[in-house]
Design brief:
The chain is of the alpha+beta class. The chain has a single domain, classed as Nuclear Transport Factor 2, Chain: A. Helices cover 28% and strands 30% of the residues. A three-stranded antiparallel beta sheet has the order 3-4-5, covered by helices on one side. It has a two-stranded antiparallel sheet with strand order 1-2. Strand 4 and strand 5 form a beta hairpin. The model has no long low-confidence stretch (mean pLDDT 86).
């Protein structure tokens, strides 16, 4: 069965059900949670796995320029290729939100390898432009 390959894991953020057991997420929900964990973790943040995570955090104080957006797209693509083996990246597009120039919307389009289904998600990332 294809969904077995997609896996089951603790729901993120970790919550409990009505019995006090840890809530689990399955299949494609688990993949989206894994993507959020990868992108939300700065490299070096995990002591026992310092290479885990994504370099987007290096751009927290960068201007939201086209060059910065390109670097963010590359960082996301590289991190997901390395850390999420259940997907193939189709496209990554970073753009500023129309209502908040300090919020970067990172749209990720990917195929789930075992089912060949196309999925996408938007990951919000906040920057604080320096005063120069």
């Amino acid at each position: 069965m294809a969904d077995e390959f997609l896996g089951t894991g603790w729901q993120y953020p970790v919550t409990s059900d009505h019995r006090g057991d840890v809530e689990l997420s399955n299949a494609e929900g688990d993949i989206q949670e894994a993507i959020r964990i990868i992108l939300g973790t700065a490299k070096g943040e995990r002591i026992m796995r310092p290479e885990f995570g994504c370099d987007i955090h290096d751009h927290v104080y960068s201007a939201a320029s086209p060059a910065t957006l390109n670097l963010i797209e590359s960082s996301v693509r590289e991190a997901l290729v390395r850390w999420e083996p259940r997907i193939d990246i189709v496209d990554v597009d970073a753009r500023t939100a129309t209502d908040d120039p300090n919020r970067i919307l990172i749209e990720i389009e990917y195929h789930v390898r075992s089912t060949n289904s196309l999925s996408n998600m938007v990951y919000p990332f906040h920057i604080t432009e320096g005063d120069g």
